[in-house]
Amino acid sequence: xxxxxxxxxxxxxxxxxxxxxxxxxxxxxxxxxxxxxxxxxxxxxxxxxxxxxxxxxxxxxxxxxxxxxxxxxxxxxxxxxxxxxxxxxxxxxxxxxxxxxxxxxxxxxxxxxxxxxxxxxxxxxxxxxxxxxxxxxxxxxxxxxxxxxxxxxxxxxxxxxxxxxxxxxxxxxxxxxxxxxxxxxxxxxxxxxxxxxxxxxxxxxxxxxxxxxxxxxxxxxxxxxxxxxxxxxxxxxxxxxxxxxxxxxxxxxxxxxxxxxxxxxxxxxxxxxxxxxxxxxxxxxxxxxxxxxxx
Length: 295
Description:
With 295 residues, the chain is an alpha/beta fold. Helix content is 40%, strand content 22%. Strands 1, 2, 3, 4, 5, 6, 7, 8, 9, 10, 11 and 12 form a 12-stranded mixed beta sheet that branches.
């Protein structure tokens, strides 16, 4: 047993880099840092986080795909860079087919938050106002913008101007200041400011009422069938050395009680999926590719 543990530790004596195709502080970054801690504990090596959010994460995929297949370069698999970039762009240098990925490990819903200056208390009042007044709404990343545009498209609301942000932090500062009217973002990013009464969460993309904000309506209450979750996992170059060993550890991590507690604290729902990650992403891609025009 000691010899086996020693062999595993020495196998990861060098630094492993995990590239996150998102800015620091967002849900993918937070989740990755938690996972890196557990990987380091399990394998004994150093796992370093590098954020490469430029070009909606496309440069991150290009970068990792160009690294040696030695198992020392991982990438956070997230909805925008791995799914919506392929929906949006026809001639990507790198897409999800260049990677082996563990099936989605966690998911997090989106919420619609409104500025306190807007003077609305619930989703019904917001929709009524949106049909009468031009609004500036924001999204952090391609998935938030997609869901937001789909939301207003299905409601036949055409006077909303979307302002894209590269990260949640700046967007939520602007929403709290009243410089934008509304925003679509993850619960992980929005809940702390909602609790601090900086702005108000009025609706969620969940299938059932949001536990943290039970008074928030469901998107599906006004747009039937509209539910959505951002999901996160881990990937490596196709056939990268030792990647399957890392993926096996990550799959087992789903059952770790300390990990479960950390995910619950941050509003991240653990996903138990039997599918191979790349196959799952491809199924999701086919689902959203038909809605390309909304992006």
